[in-house]
Amino acid sequence: MRAILFAGLALATMPVMAQQGPGAVNMRAMVEESSPSARNSLSTLSKLVSPENAVRMGFANPAEVQRAQLDNPLGDYMVRLDELSQYRGADPSSLLHSTGLVTYPVKVGEKVQSSVTLRKQDSQWKAVSFGSPLLTTALHDARDGVSKRERRASQDFFQVRVPALNLHFVGHMVEGKLMLTPVRDIEAYGLKKGDTQPAATIFAKLQPEAARDNGLPR
Protein backbone atom coordinates (compact mmCIF):
# COMPACT_ATOMS: atom_id res chain seq x y z
CA MET A 1 0.00 0.00 0.00
CA ARG A 2 1.35 3.39 -0.95
CA ALA A 3 2.02 5.45 2.15
CA ILE A 4 0.33 8.81 2.45
CA LEU A 5 1.98 11.26 4.77
CA PHE A 6 -0.02 13.54 7.01
CA ALA A 7 0.97 16.90 8.37
CA GLY A 8 3.42 16.90 11.23
CA LEU A 9 0.60 18.59 13.08
CA ALA A 10 -1.63 15.51 13.02
CA LEU A 11 -5.28 16.30 12.63
CA ALA A 12 -6.17 13.95 15.46
CA THR A 13 -4.31 16.28 17.80
CA MET A 14 -4.70 19.45 15.78
CA PRO A 15 -5.41 22.60 17.79
CA VAL A 16 -9.12 23.26 17.62
CA MET A 17 -10.84 26.47 16.73
CA ALA A 18 -10.37 29.08 19.41
CA GLN A 19 -13.86 30.47 18.92
CA GLN A 20 -17.15 29.84 17.27
CA GLY A 21 -17.61 31.03 13.74
CA PRO A 22 -20.17 33.66 12.71
CA GLY A 23 -23.75 32.69 13.40
CA ALA A 24 -22.63 30.60 16.39
CA VAL A 25 -21.41 27.82 14.07
CA ASN A 26 -19.36 25.46 16.22
CA MET A 27 -16.15 25.35 14.19
CA ARG A 28 -14.43 23.23 16.81
CA ALA A 29 -16.99 20.46 16.45
CA MET A 30 -16.95 20.77 12.68
CA VAL A 31 -13.20 20.22 12.54
CA GLU A 32 -13.17 17.40 15.06
CA GLU A 33 -15.99 15.57 13.31
CA SER A 34 -14.70 16.02 9.77
CA SER A 35 -11.00 15.30 10.28
CA PRO A 36 -11.22 11.45 10.12
CA SER A 37 -13.09 11.66 6.82
CA ALA A 38 -10.60 14.24 5.57
CA ARG A 39 -7.75 11.83 6.30
CA ASN A 40 -9.56 9.04 4.48
CA SER A 41 -10.21 11.31 1.51
CA LEU A 42 -6.49 11.52 0.78
CA SER A 43 -6.65 7.89 -0.32
CA THR A 44 -9.50 8.78 -2.64
CA LEU A 45 -7.53 11.73 -3.99
CA SER A 46 -4.55 9.50 -4.76
CA LYS A 47 -6.80 7.27 -6.85
CA LEU A 48 -8.35 10.20 -8.71
CA VAL A 49 -5.08 11.79 -9.82
CA SER A 50 -3.79 10.45 -13.12
CA PRO A 51 -1.06 11.49 -15.59
CA GLU A 52 -3.79 13.14 -17.65
CA ASN A 53 -5.35 15.27 -14.89
CA ALA A 54 -2.48 15.69 -12.41
CA VAL A 55 -1.76 19.33 -13.29
CA ARG A 56 -5.45 20.25 -13.24
CA MET A 57 -5.72 18.68 -9.78
CA GLY A 58 -2.68 20.65 -8.59
CA PHE A 59 0.16 18.14 -8.87
CA ALA A 60 3.17 17.83 -11.15
CA ASN A 61 2.54 14.09 -11.43
CA PRO A 62 0.55 11.35 -9.65
CA ALA A 63 3.56 10.37 -7.52
CA GLU A 64 3.37 13.69 -5.66
CA VAL A 65 0.06 12.69 -4.09
CA GLN A 66 1.90 10.05 -2.07
CA ARG A 67 3.54 12.85 -0.07
CA ALA A 68 0.29 14.78 0.45
CA GLN A 69 -0.50 16.36 3.81
CA LEU A 70 -3.63 18.04 5.12
CA ASP A 71 -3.38 21.59 6.41
CA ASN A 72 -5.74 23.26 8.88
CA PRO A 73 -9.20 23.61 7.31
CA LEU A 74 -11.43 26.55 6.49
CA GLY A 75 -15.14 26.59 7.23
CA ASP A 76 -17.20 28.11 4.41
CA TYR A 77 -19.70 30.96 4.44
CA MET A 78 -21.57 32.61 1.58
CA VAL A 79 -23.15 36.04 1.15
CA ARG A 80 -26.41 36.23 -0.79
CA LEU A 81 -26.64 38.91 -3.45
CA ASP A 82 -30.18 39.94 -2.55
CA GLU A 83 -29.18 40.57 1.06
CA LEU A 84 -25.98 42.35 0.05
CA SER A 85 -27.99 44.63 -2.23
CA GLN A 86 -29.97 45.79 0.82
CA TYR A 87 -26.93 46.29 3.08
CA ARG A 88 -27.08 49.59 4.93
CA GLY A 89 -24.41 49.21 7.60
CA ALA A 90 -25.97 46.63 9.93
CA ASP A 91 -23.85 43.93 11.55
CA PRO A 92 -22.08 42.41 8.51
CA SER A 93 -21.95 39.01 10.22
CA SER A 94 -25.70 38.79 9.67
CA LEU A 95 -25.06 38.42 5.93
CA LEU A 96 -22.96 35.29 6.39
CA HIS A 97 -24.63 31.92 5.85
CA SER A 98 -22.79 28.73 6.72
CA THR A 99 -22.78 26.29 3.80
CA GLY A 100 -21.75 23.35 5.96
CA LEU A 101 -18.65 22.87 3.80
CA VAL A 102 -15.14 22.45 5.19
CA THR A 103 -12.12 22.78 2.90
CA TYR A 104 -8.79 21.22 3.81
CA PRO A 105 -5.82 22.55 1.82
CA VAL A 106 -3.57 19.74 0.60
CA LYS A 107 0.15 20.36 0.80
CA VAL A 108 3.21 18.64 -0.62
CA GLY A 109 6.08 19.69 1.58
CA GLU A 110 5.42 23.33 2.45
CA LYS A 111 3.52 24.14 -0.75
CA VAL A 112 -0.27 24.11 -1.02
CA GLN A 113 -1.20 22.32 -4.23
CA SER A 114 -4.78 21.08 -3.97
CA SER A 115 -7.73 20.70 -1.61
CA VAL A 116 -10.38 18.36 -0.27
CA THR A 117 -13.83 19.76 0.52
CA LEU A 118 -16.27 17.87 2.73
CA ARG A 119 -19.92 18.21 3.71
CA LYS A 120 -21.94 16.40 6.36
CA GLN A 121 -24.52 14.15 4.69
CA ASP A 122 -26.76 11.71 6.55
CA SER A 123 -24.74 12.19 9.76
CA GLN A 124 -21.46 11.43 7.97
CA TRP A 125 -18.78 13.71 6.57
CA LYS A 126 -18.15 12.97 2.91
CA ALA A 127 -15.75 14.44 0.36
CA VAL A 128 -17.70 16.41 -2.26
CA SER A 129 -14.87 17.97 -4.31
CA PHE A 130 -11.13 17.82 -4.90
CA GLY A 131 -8.61 20.10 -6.59
CA SER A 132 -9.10 23.88 -7.05
CA PRO A 133 -5.34 24.50 -6.72
CA LEU A 134 -5.33 28.20 -7.65
CA LEU A 135 -8.16 29.22 -5.32
CA THR A 136 -6.91 27.03 -2.48
CA THR A 137 -3.42 28.51 -2.75
CA ALA A 138 -4.86 32.04 -2.72
CA LEU A 139 -6.97 31.29 0.36
CA HIS A 140 -4.07 29.68 2.18
CA ASP A 141 -1.67 32.53 1.36
CA ALA A 142 -4.19 35.16 2.48
CA ARG A 143 -4.84 33.30 5.74
CA ASP A 144 -1.13 32.76 6.33
CA GLY A 145 -0.37 36.43 5.74
CA VAL A 146 -2.96 37.71 8.20
CA SER A 147 -2.13 34.99 10.71
CA LYS A 148 1.52 36.03 10.81
CA ARG A 149 0.80 39.75 10.72
CA GLU A 150 -1.71 39.66 13.55
CA ARG A 151 -0.17 36.69 15.39
CA ARG A 152 -3.37 34.71 15.24
CA ALA A 153 -3.79 30.94 14.96
CA SER A 154 -4.71 29.71 11.48
CA GLN A 155 -7.72 27.99 13.02
CA ASP A 156 -9.30 31.40 13.67
CA PHE A 157 -10.00 31.94 9.96
CA PHE A 158 -12.75 30.91 7.56
CA GLN A 159 -13.68 31.42 3.92
CA VAL A 160 -16.30 34.01 2.90
CA ARG A 161 -17.69 33.91 -0.65
CA VAL A 162 -19.96 36.17 -2.65
CA PRO A 163 -20.80 33.63 -5.38
CA ALA A 164 -22.85 35.98 -7.57
CA LEU A 165 -19.87 38.36 -7.82
CA ASN A 166 -17.26 35.58 -7.93
CA LEU A 167 -15.46 37.01 -4.90
CA HIS A 168 -13.53 35.17 -2.20
CA PHE A 169 -12.25 36.43 1.13
CA VAL A 170 -10.62 35.06 4.26
CA GLY A 171 -12.57 36.13 7.33
CA HIS A 172 -11.86 36.34 11.02
CA MET A 173 -13.41 37.99 14.07
CA VAL A 174 -11.78 40.74 16.16
CA GLU A 175 -13.65 41.62 19.35
CA GLY A 176 -16.92 40.64 17.74
CA LYS A 177 -16.21 42.53 14.52
CA LEU A 178 -16.04 40.66 11.21
CA MET A 179 -12.86 41.36 9.23
CA LEU A 180 -12.29 40.32 5.61
CA THR A 181 -9.11 39.87 3.58
CA PRO A 182 -9.38 39.67 -0.24
CA VAL A 183 -7.51 36.69 -1.71
CA ARG A 184 -6.80 38.62 -4.93
CA ASP A 185 -6.80 42.20 -6.20
CA ILE A 186 -10.32 43.38 -7.06
CA GLU A 187 -9.73 46.62 -8.93
CA ALA A 188 -13.42 47.26 -9.63
CA TYR A 189 -14.01 47.76 -5.91
CA GLY A 190 -10.63 49.17 -4.92
CA LEU A 191 -9.69 46.06 -2.94
CA LYS A 192 -6.12 44.78 -2.65
CA LYS A 193 -5.02 41.21 -2.08
CA GLY A 194 -4.04 40.71 1.56
CA ASP A 195 -5.40 44.08 2.72
CA THR A 196 -7.61 43.30 5.71
CA GLN A 197 -10.57 45.64 6.25
CA PRO A 198 -13.75 45.62 8.32
CA ALA A 199 -16.42 43.63 6.52
CA ALA A 200 -18.76 46.59 6.89
CA THR A 201 -16.41 48.69 4.74
CA ILE A 202 -16.08 46.02 2.07
CA PHE A 203 -19.80 45.24 1.94
CA ALA A 204 -20.52 48.96 1.55
CA LYS A 205 -18.26 48.97 -1.53
CA LEU A 206 -19.98 45.91 -2.99
CA GLN A 207 -23.55 47.00 -2.24
CA PRO A 208 -24.06 49.29 -5.28
CA GLU A 209 -22.97 46.53 -7.67
CA ALA A 210 -25.23 44.03 -5.92
CA ALA A 211 -28.12 46.46 -6.24
CA ARG A 212 -27.44 46.85 -9.98
CA ASP A 213 -27.26 43.12 -10.61
CA ASN A 214 -29.46 41.94 -13.46
CA GLY A 215 -29.44 38.29 -12.49
CA LEU A 216 -27.14 37.18 -15.31
CA PRO A 217 -24.23 34.81 -14.64
CA ARG A 218 -20.85 36.47 -14.20
Give structural notes.
The structure is a single chain. This protein has 218 residues and is of the alpha+beta class. It has one domain. Helix content is 29%, strand content 28%. The protein has 5 helices and 9 strands. It has helices at residues 27-48, 54-57, 81-85, 133-150, 199-212, and strands at 68-70, 74-79, 96-108, 111-121, 124-130, 158-162, 167-174, 177-182, 197-198. Strands 1, 2, 3, 4, 5, 6, 7, 8 and 9 form a 9-stranded mixed sheet that branches. A hairpin with a 2-residue loop joins strand 3 (96-108) and strand 4 (111-121). The longest helix has 22 residues, at 27-48. The model is unreliable at 1-19 (pLDDT under 50).
How do the helices and strands line up, and which of them pair or pack?
Blueprint: H1 27-48, H2 54-57, E1 68-70, E2 74-79, H3 81-85, E3 96-108, E4 111-121, E5 124-130, H4 133-150, E6 158-162, E7 167-174, E8 177-182, E9 197-198, H5 199-212
Parallel strand pairs: 2-6
Antiparallel strand pairs: 1-3, 2-3, 3-4, 4-5, 6-7, 7-8, 8-9
Would you identify the regions where 5 or more consecutive residues have pLDDT less than 50?
A: 1-19
Separate helix tally: 5
How many domains?
A: 1
Q: What general form does the structure show?
A: globular
pLDDT averaged residue by residue: 87
- The ordered H/E elements are HHEEHEEEHEEEEH
- Proportion of residues in β-strands: 25-35%
Q: Mind telling me the C-alpha Rg?
A: 18 Å
The biggest sheet, with number of strands, parallel, antiparallel or mixed sense and barrel status, is:
9 strands, mixed
Q: N- to C-terminal separation?
A: 44 Å
Helix content: 25-40%
Query: What's the count of strands?
Result: 9
- Helices and strands: which structural class? alpha+beta
